[in-house]
Amino acid sequence: MSDDYDFRLRFSRRYSMGHRLISGAAPNCRVPHGHDEIVTVDIVQISQAGLDPETNMLAEFDRVKRRWFQWIDRDVDHSFHISNADRLLGFFQEHEPELTAKLLVTPGDPTTEIRAACFKAKIGAFLAEDEPNFRCDRLIIQETPANAVEIMATRLDGILPKGDHWWDRADTSINDL
Predict the structure, then answer these.
(1) Which domains does the chain have, with CATH numbers?
(2) What is the mean pLDDT of each run of 10 residues along the chain (177 residues)?
(3) Neighbours of 136 (CB within 10 A)
């Protein structure tokens, strides 16, 4: 493949979510509130083999994005993003256990930054299982029209805890409850 070009597949999806931050770093975000967000991913070919000479494609779009879009639409959309240390988590588990499936639980405050890392790991797990010749090179969460977070890390060590967590698995989970 020539160094003169670099093909990327870019997919965006909108979802609604709620969250609250408890660390105190963003006082206005202590009260549960919501956003309509857009997540955009750039997918690149690991082998850099270029276009398939028979189809003139890197890959058929639906094949690469299907599981990712299904996860966003079915599991992330209208979920409540909550810290693993938030006392509301215990409230939901005790008083409204039927809602725990819609709790997206993050290590610490569910900031846009940590959620971007979790989402990048999740799409990485989907791609590793379904399309091992592709990886997510960049992920952007547009939180508001004026604020976005972009992550381009190839490794998430030091950002996300090690172990078996929902973001590392190629399943539909959004928590480990």
Answers:
(1) 9-168 (3.30.479.10)
(2) 75 98 93 97 93 93 96 98 97 97 98 98 97 96 96 93 96 97
(3) 23
